[in-house]
Design goal:
Elements: H1 2-13, H2 15-28, H3 32-46, H4 50-117, H5 122-134, H6 143-148, H7 150-169, H8 179-229, H9 233-243, H10 245-254
């Protein structure tokens, strides 16, 4: 488990920098056991053919940087998605308020119109108009749910706009509601939804590239892993003890 992590460390820092850092730690170590662990690990790495080790590390420099770069970009995308979703939530709440208010008004206007123009079936017509203008807005709970129900959302908006247009021509717009605010709220939500969708798509593309780059790196890493696994058992134990000093302490505590 620790060999791959050790491999990444050598690729990231380079062999010379690794030896310099380890020697510094040996010189500054106050714990005798840690000093011994560092010493045996250094000896183990030095027991590997230097040219073979440097060649294996050098071949991984480019692929390693590619995976790190993609990983950083993915983290940046995650932050962008979080920010975009926060802005989306504010826009969705604003749009929801407008849809509820205008939907209720449009429902009442259409009920009155139907009663005047057609044979009024109070149950069927009322249910249909209620669904069209007053139905549940729970899909505004998240960008994902709105994306799934986007066509229904657009139909709801256009139905209300149709009633607004008719009322405008008849100079019968409600005094307590602002149709400009309605349009601005819907437009803002459209923009925020597009931003979230764009961030999510970018994140997926980067993730796909990262998976490919990671697979390529893993394949190229095999020679280096084989070299590190060929170290003496003392070096392998030293690596394990350096990485998990807590297990040594637990083992000692169990003896008493």
């Amino acid at each position: 488990m620790w060999i791959p992590r050790f491999s990444h460390l050598l690729v990231e820092r380079g062999l010379n920098a690794f030896f310099e850092k380890m020697q510094e730690k040996v010189s500054n170590a106050t714990d005798r056991r840690l000093r011994d662990d560092l010493h045996f690990l250094i000896k183990g790495v030095k027991s590997i053919d230097r040219h073979a080790l440097e060649a294996a590390i050098a071949s991984l420099k480019g692929p390693f940087q590619a995976t790190v770069s993609l990983s950083n970009k993915h983290e940046q995308c995650a932050a962008s998605i979080k920010q975009a979703e926060s802005e989306w939530q504010r826009a969705a709440e604003r749009a929801k308020q407008q849809l509820e208010a205008w939907g209720e008004w449009a429902y009442e206007i259409e009920v009155a119109r139907y009663k005047r123009l057609v044979a009024w079936d109070s149950l069927v017509s009322s249910l249909r108009l209620s669904f069209e203008f007053r139905s549940d807005l729970s899909f505004l709970g998240s960008p994902q749910r709105l994306r799934t129900n986007f066509e229904f959302f657009e139909r709801r908006v256009e139905a209300i706009r149709g009633v607004i247009a008719t009322a405008y021509i008849a100079e019968a717009l409600p005094a307590k509601l602002d149709h400009v605010e309605f349009d601005e709220a819907i437009h803002c939500l459209f923009e925020r939804q597009a931003k979230v969708d764009q961030c999510v798509q970018t994140s997926r593309e980067i993730e796909a590239k990262w998976v490919v780059a990671g697979a390529e790196y893993s394949e190229l890493e095999k020679p280096l892993l084989e070299l590190l696994r060929s170290m003496p058992s003392t070096a392998l134990w030293a690596l394990f003890r350096i990485c998990r000093p807590d297990l040594r302490e637990q083992a000692e505590a169990a003896r008493f």
